[in-house]
Amino acid sequence: MFAFGGGAGQILNIVSIGAVGALLLFAGSEMALARRVLDIAPSGKVVVAVTLAVSVASNMVIGLAAGFLAEWLRVIVLRYRKPTFG
């Protein structure tokens, strides 16, 4: 966007918001079905779910921030959790 300067708004107005939403939905579903996302730890799935829920409920920027916060909290919890042995 920065490369287009003042004309960035005009370029973004060429594509309808519905088309952008459809592209985001398609890209998100492709990433969600990828093997890498399906093979993550259960605590990582919570982070993905939080990011998804906040993104759908509000907007992508707030969802991204919520995902960063959830991952940060997950790392802290896992770092200080005592290991349990069988």
List keywords for this structure.
86 residues; mainly alpha; 5 helices; 74% helix; 0% strand; elongated
Radius of gyration: 18 Å
- What is the quaternary state of this protein? single chain
State the distance separating the first and last CA atoms: 54 Å
Number of helices: 5
Approximate helicity band: over 70%
Mean pLDDT figure: 81
- Tell me the strand percentage band: under 5%
Main sheet attributes: strand count, strand direction, barrel closure: none
Layout: helices, strands, pairs:
Layout: H1 8-14, H2 17-32, H3 35-38, H4 42-57, H5 60-80
Helix pairs in contact: 4-5
Notes on the structure:
With 86 residues, the chain is mainly α. It contains 5 helices and no strands. It has helices at residues 8-14, 17-32, 35-38, 42-57, 60-80. α4 packs antiparallel against α5. It starts with 7 loop residues before the first helix and ends in a 6-residue tail after the last helix. The model has no long low-confidence stretch (mean pLDDT 81).
